[in-house]
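Schema walk-through. Below, the input block comes first and the output block second. Nothing else is stored per chain. Lengths vary across the set, and this one has 311 residues.
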Amino acid sequence: MKANRPGEMHSIDGRMSPDLQTAFHIYSSHWRKVNARWQYPEHTHPSFEINVVLQGSQHMVVNGRSYVQESGDILFIRPGVTHSSLGTRNGGEMTYYCLHFDIDDLVLRRALLTLDAVSLGGEAPELAAIRSALDSLIASAILSEAEGAKRSRMQTLQATLGLFSALCGWALAGTADDPRMARPGASENTVALASAIEGLLQESVFTAAATGSRGGGIESIAARLGYSTNHCNRVFQQIFGMSPRQYLSDLIIRHAKLLLLDNSLSVETIALRLGYRDVSHFSKQFKRWTGRPPMGFRRLTAEQETGGTRG
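--- output ---
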């Protein structure tokens, strides 16, 4: 007979919420005031961009289409989309705020890739929530020099969480009932294959934590599913907007950072739990991904917790 877990005996009803573990990255966020001669050439980014005009007006070109941003107008630019700024619309000065972000939660990522919008205008409450979150981020950036480092970081983190909450609200309001949220032109089989690859990539990291062996990457997963590696790469990129290898790296980085927060675990133990037989290989990859070696990341985290200076 199956034994009841604590709390289950005599329970009448109940539900379990899903376990969640995700990571987000905001970088190159800045506000800038420019004159009438300022422009920014055509370029792309591997992540999402949000651009909002705070004063004046700006003429942007996104994926070949012109957009005129007046004060308060927001542009949302997806990864890999070509865009440029032709500068101020009517001459004079202009002030804008820009940030780039990425997230490894594939449900939210897929929803944001699917939503067909660049200019976020209108009175919808979801868009008002995004603007409010951006206002908080801008305020935290402006006030950061006046506040202590620890308090400033907490304010920025609070504003960042507000932004991702608002983006989730926008995605929920704009997506169809289909939970797969397929991108245009994607068949049911394509979505199913991409989801299967996602599950096996996660399984490989969890298996490593339990056994110390992660096994192969996308090559072995493709063979297991009966498709070529190239086909699996194309399908995953089409649905999620990132390669399987990048997604696997993000999973490993996230787990590595969480494990490094536990000072009782040596770097050698962490490397083994992540499926690395060679601790030096893990250390080199971690530094390539984050810019710091594992022990450097651990020391930085400890300094931030105690309010010390950055190393």
